[in-house]
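In the lab's daily routine, each protein ends up as an entry in a very long ledger. A line of letters takes care of the sequence, but it says nothing directly about the fold. The fold becomes a row of whole numbers, each drawn from a learned catalogue of backbone shapes. The protein below has been through that process, and both of its lines are reproduced in full:
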Amino acid sequence: MVDRLSAAACEVVTETSEIGPNEVGPNADVSLTTSGRAAPYDARMNLKLNVRWICGALIVAMSAWVLHSFVQALLAACVAAVASWPLYRRFRARIPSRIPRAAVAFAFTAVMTLFVMAPVVFALGALAVEAREMLLELASAEKQGIAAPFFAWTHRAEPAAYLGYAQMLGQFMVRHLFLVAFAILVLFFLYQKGDTIGRDLRRLLRHRIGDRADAYVMVATRAVRASVNSMLVVALFDGFAAGIAYYLTGVPHAALWAAITGTLALVPFLGYAAVAAVALRLAIIGATSSAMLALVLGAAVILCGDKMVRPVVAGDGTHLAFVWILMGCIGGFEVLGFVGLVVGPVALALTREMWLQRVRELAPGARSRTPRAAPRPARKAASGLAS
């Protein structure tokens, strides 16, 4: 009798041990999937994840909607911070450690503001002065019949149209001054917290897209700096070369017009407007041959800057052909304004990198030929805004 009871107890223990931790009896109210996992549990987890993602997407959409008016200012500050971060690190290394980081960031922000804004303000002021003198010369040349077509157009215009143009110009200037002020404020914040922001951004990208995150960050950083360098080099080249051409052709205030030409040459093909204005000014005062010579020489300078200098400087960093750099600059300027001159080529450079990465993955034998991920850089080099 004892032996029979012991055998029955062993059978019960054996049957109980064969039941998995996720399995339930036939009287339970939970249905089982083929994998042995409770279906309502999976449904609750999926619902919880969906609700979390929906709430996160709504918060991000709300934040984007609130900040949509400051997109250009934020992008301009980020571009300036990434492009000038190596200079900021050298500047910070030369400052004594007892000086607070906020003071160092404020000083470098002031230097960058003067370096970037001073030439633009000077060129715009010179353009306003030259426009005023040109209008006076048009008024004096009306008696000779040279400016008759211009004045015929102005006489047909309504006074209300001039007020509308003035109001639009005033609103345009106020809005962009407002954006510039916010861009400078964000730039100061990026200089102050750039190390933390860069480290957190790299960690987030590695978590989301894996080891390729470092490659994408390096491509974007290199493209940003190459685009900014190309703009500065083209502006300096066109300014100096156009100044020499204007001086040789006898343009009044050649230095001012050279500064205007260099500033407008930051945007592809916009430097031709300055050259045309110079030729028009010479034609108004009766120097027709000098006007034609200035037009030809100035157009040649702008052509060399856009077709030769810009692709050489920007192509080394973006690895894009000239036509893609040109389309990226013009398309970015159309969508985002001045900051689009940098964002456009950067977006195309990232698209090229993702395309090449995908092609390498799909190529036969890609596993054997794919190089291993580069080792992570040192802690100091990994910090900062893609330093």
Summary: The chain has two domains: 69-194, 207-364.
